[in-house]
Amino acid sequence: MHEASLVQAVLTQVATLARERGAARVVRMRIRIGQLAGVEEELFRFAFDALSHSTICADAVLEILPEKVEWTCDACGNPIAAGDRLQCSVCGWPARLVRGDSLLLEQVELETP
Amino acid sequence: MCETRGNTNANKLMVEVQEQLLSSNDSAAAHNREHFVRSGLFAVNLMGSPGAGKTALLEATARWFGGGSGLAAITGDLETDRDARRLRDAGVRCTAITTGSTCHLDARMVHRALHELNTDDAHFLFIENVGNLVCPAIYDLGQAVNVVALSITEGEDKPLKYPVMFHRADLVVITKFDLQIALPEFDLAALEDAISRVMPRPNIIRVSARTGEGIGQWVEWLERRRGTMDRPAHSYAHVHTHEPISVPA
């Protein structure tokens, strides 16, 4: 379960950011997780609950934005549906991933004294 | 990083971060990559299920080279250094990373292992990842290429079930191909079709470490890719340039 080490990394990132701004607590954080990021939302939340306990993120709302996979043909722009063969049915060019592999800490809301 | 104070509540501070969750690993991976490129070491991140035949593939590779001259390896396992010992017996300079309960290697572990490994005169560094078709895929180690070993006994649908790893692969090595004779139901076309639905540029080599079938083709692929080393085909979207970092030893 690599989600635990990811959560640990994000907690460190957010704690540093909060400390630098003298925040009293972290209210909310928003994380974008693509379908191809290799991260299970449920496991991520489970790890977050377990590891954020007694940190500055303890009461923070964890907002997860799922991101769907989107492929396109780089040569002719033809969209390629996820699950299809990843070569363009029109021109045969290999597909390019437009989005779907994000693993991004987007936004953090802090409460300052 | 953009920051906004709340309109109604001045104590609320909104910070736009837009930072990769793996940014710390990525910095360490960039550091490794710089080292590999500078020292002319072609690094291969070899992934696959436990028992896929990763170590056997590397033993066969060493045999092809007439011993392990020019080859170095780092093996990752939860416990024991058995794989490293096997590779040393095959003549490959090798160090083991025992990860304890961690299901993957990360760039810092590889960095530490590199300090224990003499890679002088080596052209290839094989990083045999922890046997696991899920977690290792998302950690950049600084490698030039990702290779997935998949044995024919694992089933044709594995690429569809574990798309993240296959999507990031530069090559799929289908191992234990000598067992095909015992597996009449094995459907190579179905496996190739599954791979083509997760890999935009499907690239497959069939090998048998036991008979040596396909090992020449595998070595030829490695040599060819090593020739294009400064331009790794698989680029991580989040790789970035940065000041030299210090990674704790």
State the main characteristics.
heterodimer; A: about 110 residues; alpha+beta; hypothetical protein PF0899 fold; three-stranded mixed β-sheet; three-stranded antiparallel β-sheet; elongated; B: about 250 residues; alpha/beta; Rossmann fold; seven-stranded parallel β-sheet; two-stranded antiparallel sheet; 9 strands; about 30% helix; globular
Describe this structure in words.
The complex is a heterodimer of chains A (113) and B (249). Chain A has a domain at 3-68 and 99-111: hypothetical protein PF0899 fold (2-Layer Sandwich). A three-stranded mixed β-sheet of chain A has the order 2-1-6. In chain A, strands 4-3-5 form a three-stranded antiparallel β-sheet, with no helix packed on it. In chain A, helix 1 (3-20) packs across helix 2. Chain A starts with a helix and ends with a strand. Chain A has helices at 3-20, 41-52, and strands at residues 25-34, 61-67, 70-73, 79-80, 95-99, 103-111. In chain A, 27% of the residues lie in helices and 33% in strands. Chain A is an alpha+beta fold and 113 residues long. By secondary structure, chain B is an alpha/beta fold. Chain B has a single domain, classed as P-loop containing nucleotide triphosphate hydrolases (Rossmann fold), CATH 3.40.50. Chain B is 30% helix and 21% strand. Chain B is built from eight helices and nine strands. In chain B, strands 5-4-6-3-7-8-9 form a seven-stranded parallel β-sheet, sandwiched between helices. At the A-B interface, helix 1, strand 5 and strand 6 of A face strand 2, helix 1 and helix 6 of B. Strand 6 of chain A pairs antiparallel with strand 2 of chain B.
